[in-house]
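Weekly structure sync, notes
Attendees: PL, DS, HV (note-taker this week)

Item 1: Beta-tubulin
DS walked through the input record. Source organism listed as Cetraspora pellucida. Sequence as pasted into the shared doc:
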Amino acid sequence: SDTVVEPYNATLSVHQLVENSDETFCIDNEALYDICFRTLKLNTPTYGDLNHLVSAVMSGITTCLRFPGQLNADLRKLAVNM
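Item 1 (cont.): predicted structure, written out as tokens:
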């Protein structure tokens, strides 16, 4: 069962994430399913539904990097401000 190993995977991966990445967005699968059930009213969400949620989140986070405007930033500023 995945449930048994999830805490171990999360705990063991944190060190690698801290050491080898500048920015990391950890998204919980249960939270995605909860959004699908409660907010989007989907009885049986698919991986496509979950991927759509993740892509919407990442699109929203990086909007200021992709479009011109006063609030433009680069990835370094984004990492500092988060």
